[in-house]
Specification:
The protein has two domains: 162 residues, Gyrase A, domain 2; 123 residues, Elongation Factor Tu (Ef-tu), domain 3. The protein is globular and about 55 Å long. The two termini are 32 Å apart. It is α+β, with helices and mostly antiparallel strands. The chain has six helices and 16 strands. It has a six-stranded antiparallel β-barrel with strand order 11-14-13-12-15-16. The protein has a five-stranded antiparallel β-sheet with strand order 1-7-10-9-8. The longest helix has 12 residues.
Length: 312
């Protein structure tokens, strides 16, 4: 079996590996606008955005989902293992801006919702399209990109509230869907490893090229306009469990890695990974985990078009 039983991938799961950064104050939007890869100033209360936070060299320190939590309040959901470092670094640049940054994870619980049962439970509060944000169930819900036709939602509830009254979904199943969405999540093992385009961020709406400056903006823009990119991220099925940050090798080169695992998951014994890889390594031979003769990687259908494919 190469993938889990899709009929069973429905329900809800507490996302224990996610956390939330809160930004509050009159200058919160303008501060975040100057730090993230998205146009925060134009983001209305009915929308959410995939965002990246980069070093001055354009390497991703974190990624996340950003939405307006209330008046002069913004919420950034990101990987829990990069939250503290991201919060500390962002705080260094607040200076005189009227913006207070804090870890909202103790007061906000994030839940993943999947499938028709989730859409039915949300009812009229279910956003119709990816990256829409609605109020729902006493909290806020963001619709994420579908995976093989399955709707996915990110629901933020006060920490003391009951979990959604839905069938329990295994966290591994959620992670498997996350991998197969092709939307990268930066975790501790991959901090500073990728320029946004190396993990397809511009192809999935994670970079706005019309906004003003942010850390690494010149590098990101140059990567976009200087010509064909040499590295991209693709979804693979694996013959063994993979780990974020694990190197990937081409069958013809035992010395130099051809890429790196961005995110990985195993559900129902099925192993999957989102892998950043040299495009030249796709022409011939095979890709393997950890070594040139390691477990085989088998590329599966990409869930969205890439510019290189559109131009082919």
């Amino acid at each position: 079996m190469s993938e889990p039983d899709f009929e069973a991938l429905q329900g809800t799961v507490r996302l224990s590996d996610w956390g939330v950064i809160r930004a509050q104050g009159a200058d919160a939007a303008s501060f975040l606008h100057g730090q993230l890869t998205q146009d925060v100033l134009q983001l209305d209360e009915r929308s959410a955005r995939l965002v990246g936070y980069c070093t001055a060299k354009g390497r991703l320190l974190a990624s996340g989902v950003l939405w307006r939590g209330g008046a002069d309040e913004w919420l950034l959901a990101c990987s829990a293992d990069v939250l503290a470092a991201t919060l500390k670094r962002l705080s260094m640049f607040v200076l005189r801006a009227k913006c207070k940054l804090s870890d909202a994870s103790p007061s906000l619980a994030l839940h993943g919702l999947v499938g028709p049962v989730a859409s039915t439970w949300l009812g009229a509060s279910a956003p119709a399209s990816p990256w829409q944000r609605h109020d729902a169930a006493g909290g806020q819900v963001v619709r994420l990109p579908e995976v093989r036709g399955l709707a996915r939602y990110l629901l933020a509830l006060p920490a003391g509230d009951a979990a959604p009254a839905l069938p329990a979904l295994a966290l591994d199943a959620w992670r498997w869907l996350e991998v197969n969405s092709g939307v990268a999540r930066i975790v501790a093992a991959t901090v500073e490893q990728f320029v946004p385009q190396m993990v397809n961020f511009e192809a999935v709406g994670g970079v706005n090229f019309q906004k003003g400056c942010y850390p690494g903006q010149e590098v990101v823009a140059r990567s976009q306009y200087r010509g064909t990119l040499k590295r991209r991220a693709f979804v693979y099925a694996c013959d063994a469990a993979a780990q974020s940050g694990q190197e990937v090798f081409h069958s013809a080169d035992r010395e130099q890695p051809a890429g790196m695992v961005v995110n990985a998951a195993t559900a129902d014994g099925c192993h999957g990974a989102l892998v950043e890889v040299k495009l030249a390594a796709l022409d011939t031979g095979t890709l393997h985990l950890g070594a040139a003769d390691g477990p085989l990687l088998r590329r599966v259908a990409q869930p969205y078009a890439l510019p290189l494919e559109a131009a082919a």
